[in-house]
Design a protein that fits this description.
This protein is 5% helix and 36% strand. By secondary structure, it is mainly β. The strands form 3 sheets. A 4-stranded antiparallel β-sheet has the order 1-4-8-6. Strands 2-10-5-7 form a 4-stranded antiparallel β-sheet, with no helix packed on it.
Length: 146
């Protein structure tokens, strides 16, 4: 498994990201809040983590849902996967949404998401008059079957 150093500053009381197993691709991040936050059904909330990163150029950090949180509570990351760009120096905050029927309470130090460090490939977009044809063509949503 490839590793890269990611400088990380944290607020007082914040938890560093943690890989829970040796094979984990995602490191869990926790809420860093003074007071619990209640997310009502079908509502969202921006939850601070108290973490700040200096991501090397050519990389990003993706913010993804935790499967257990989604399965057990129907709570997920709204803009998944969220991207933290290498030039961002602000606090990582996680946009959670409660898709369940019951209110969900986020407490300080709750594991709320996972982050994955990934290399970035930038596209060079070239203006052309015509694209090559394929069997699928312009078929969009649902065009390849159910």
């Amino acid at each position: 498994m490839k590793e890269i150093k990611i400088p990380c500053k944290k607020n007082e009381g914040a938890e560093f990201p943690v890989y829970k197993t040796s094979g984990a691709a995602g490191a869990d991040v926790c809420a860093c809040i003074k007071d619990s936050v209640v997310i009502h059904s079908m509502q969202s909330a921006l939850i601070p983590t108290g973490l700040f990163f200096e991501i090397p150029e050519g990389y990003e950090i993706q913010v993804r849902p935790r499967s257990g949180l989604a399965f057990n509570n129907s709570v997920t990351v709204l803009n998944a996967p969220g991207t933290i760009d290498s030039d961002y120096r602000g606090e990582l905050k996680v946009l959670l949404i409660n898709l369940g029927k019951e209110d969900f309470t986020v407490n300080n130090k709750d594991r709320i998401a996972q982050i994955v460090v990934a290399p970035v490939t930038r596209g060079l977009f070239d203006s052309v008059e015509k694209l090559s044809s394929t069997e699928r063509g312009e078929g969009g949503f649902g065009s390849t079957g159910k």
